[in-house]
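Quick bug: Glutamine-dependent NAD(+) synthetase output formatted oddly.
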Amino acid sequence: MGHLVTVATSLNQWALDFERILTSIRIAKERGATLRVGPELEIPGYGCLDHFLEGDTCLHSWEVLAKILTSEEAQGIVCDVGMPVMHKNVIYNCRIIIHDGQILLIRPKMWMANSGNYRELRYFTPWMKHREAEDHYLPRIIKAITGQVKVPFGDAVVSTIDTCIGVELCEELFTPSSPHILMGLDGVEIFTNSSGSHHELRKLFTRVELIKEATMKLGGIYLYANQQGCDGDRLYYDGCAMIAVNGRIVAQGSQFSLQDVEVVTATVDLEDVRAFRAVSSRSMQAAGASRYQRIEVDFALSEEDDTNSVKDVSELVVKNYDIRYHRPEEEIALGPACWLWDYLRRSRTQGYFLPLSGGIDSCATAVIVHSMCRLVAESALRGDQAVIWDARRVAGEPENSTYVPSDPKDFANRIFHTCYMGTENSSEETRRRAKELAQAIGSYHTDLNMDSIVTAVRNLFSFVTGAKPQFRAHGGSPAENLALQNIQARLRMVLAYLFAQLLPWVRGRSGGLLVLGSANVDESLRGYLTKYDNSSADINPIGAISKTDLKKFIAYAKDSFDLPILTQFLDAVPTAELEPITETYVQADEADMGMTYDELSIFGRLRKVEKCGPYSMFTKLVHEWGSFLSPTQVAEKVKLFFFEYARNRHKMTTLTPSYHAEQYSPDDNRFDLRPFLYPSRFPWQFKKIDALATSLPDRSTMHPREAKEKI
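Here's what came back:
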């Protein structure tokens, strides 16, 4: 049967929480694991950001490591844990390999993640001495436990009695020349990868393929551990811990979960790796491979008598394991819902408040909260005591309560509050849709007209200035029309916070509610929102999700969550309802914006993901859209987008913290770092676009309506 090894990889982490690791080690040992690897920087949490620059973070990490070293759980197992380490006055992102109260190796990260949401070079320095190690002198608190004065620090591998283990840290897997290649050629059979990889729609496939590819040609066992949950920021780390053998995934954890600790195990045969590597071409390269320093440990991962190492044949790895992928609609239903739950229970507030407009964006936000309530109910029915305890506290139950949140509608009525804030410009259709959706999901719903407040503000202005602004429909100027729309939008934000603070009091409870925003990524990119209106909130679960994806999510939720009312939201024309409705005019979002939501998604991806400025965006789109739009039409669309983007960019500086789900998010605070004052018409770029557009032949053949459908 060969040499059988049970390996484990796990945890819902929270920056500066310093807990949960011992639980995962205990579970791994209970399942027979002899090697356990956890997520990146798991001791302090990956999302500490500038706290990594504080000496306290390193100090407390050593203190937690001391507890792990002295614990009963960490005996008889090799553990790979992560924390920051200061070596020769330089801070490194490190893995610490421990066994039976001893530190075997401190392995610093060599290639840092420093794009998008990642800023690792702000806190850490990469280890540049590849395949080299030197002495690291331990702090006294650790020396007193291990009896060690110094330990190896650097790019080395750990050699047990029966195999060899090498470390690859998160981003190092994504680099063109990953460390696992040279380590594998030098005889490393087990690779550990500790990651802090956050969720983005459609991202998991790339991660899985890289993990499979790591051992597909090389052979070996690959253990991938990732954080799961909200780490105190805009990101949701989507877990999905995996174990791969010779290019096949043999075990996979959940991508979205309310669990605090999840451990994935698999029993694998080292002889499978050796047989896979018995290829002449691989052996020739291995024979000339550079040598890694080996740190030896007198411990075997496999049992000496392998006939007793597997109690049941079902413990062996499954040969044909089906990898689980969620569709984007399911990702939207699950990822933001888990993020909202983590945020709610950790902020110690009493629930959420959402201005429910009757449009598809606030509808999507409400359905995501409904999904969160469903997940809580499912966990409660499985007997998850941590979820039940958190739900009782959030719902304001007394300490001796026996309440179990088994019904998502009942739980929503306790913690989710919605409100329709109508004016004379609102329609009965949106009011009715909001009420029926609230009834379907169980939220505590209120309905109000705010015309008296709007009129009071308008009259105050007229009293002070002697001028009475009018809507465009009543003969007013564009400035008057916009100002009157913004009064309504901003007053909704004021009312939202008033109701969020006082509704628990009205219901005889203490505490307050978090206000949810519901502006989507396309509207933020275009700037189609009012600064400090009810897009300004505490958090926004859909702020980095496109309108196109939100519609698909609503269509999915209609059937999956049995919410037939959602059909009405899908059929409705998106409208802000901030202007008077007349016989000849009904306000519509796409008409207001001068571009469609589908066009905005394309502009957004080209601007951010493909790194296009105005000119390069035009040169790409003139080829992609050339069969149904003339070059000058394409030029006008590109110029209009960049004009509106530039003059509204300042709004991104006050954007509500949003769940990060899309690569083209315009979030100015963490992700999309740009000026917020632009030359609004990009004179040089637009001049080049116009010159090229007029010189190109017109190849378009479609009717404008067909062209819109094509885009």
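Actually, after a second look the formatting is fine. The CA atoms of residues 213 and 247 lie 6 Å apart. Closing.
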